[in-house]
Amino acid sequence: MHTIAVIGTGKIGEVLLSGLLRAGWPADRLLATTRRPERGAELKERYGVEIVDNDTAIARADVLAVAVKPQDAEVLMADLGPRIPADKLVVSLCAGLPTSFFAKWLPAGTPVVRVMTNTPALVDEAMTAISAGAHATGDHLSLAEEMFRPLGRTIRVPESQQDAVTALSGSGPAYFYYLVEAMTDAGILLGLPRQVAHDLIVQTAIGSAIMLRDSGEHPVKLREAVTSPAGTTISAIRELEDHRVRAALLAALEAARDRAREIADQTG
After folding, report:
1. Which of 124, 129, 223, 254 could be stapled to 165 by a disulfide with Cβ–Cβ 3.0 to 4.6 Å?
2. pLDDT, mean of residues 162-183
3. Who's near 182: CB < 8 A, 6+ residues apart?
4. Residues 116/13/15/139 CA torsion (nearest 10 deg)
5. pLDDT of residue 268
């Protein structure tokens, strides 16, 4: 079993760390680095993993999972990159940063895999997209899948699609929370207590998601099955169409995709 070091164990790094432990990855095969000593002490107490400095992580780990914020990646890689041996696998969890960004700091031929996961990893229901850099092989992708499969589902995509993935599933949970928030408020407007409205919409969302995943039906068919002629549902959908909700979603995801590209250009 490979030794994995999480470099910069913030929120997303902790998600990976905790998921690996829940999946049975031995704690003695996991290392973590942190910027602040108190954060390291917190992680050590919570998970029992060894907190090390970056040099120790490079020396002992087979896989370096870089989980810092994108704006902090350049300073980190300028310092660490030249010291990372070319036989290590670098896995990037930095939103918006292409594998070419890491390659320019690393020794020639170092394999890099780009990963975009999302916060449902906290409940082992993540959607994680994995892309190979120029020197990453099928074995490297398989190892990345082994790391992230305990957190939910994984999918391989060309790196050219990763900005779209960031917009759709990386940021996607926030869109659903926003929708639940709005529908809960609507329930209150209609006279329901807040908790009742919340419970109704959350369970409806869970059930609908399971049907989408397991039925194999197109979402249009599932929607039509609820939409009776001259009924309540079609009246609601007409209002959604009149308010251009579909167009707003298209524009919102394009804006998220464009922002991912801007982050890469600014860091570039």
Report:
1. 129
2. 96
3. none
4. 50
5. 62
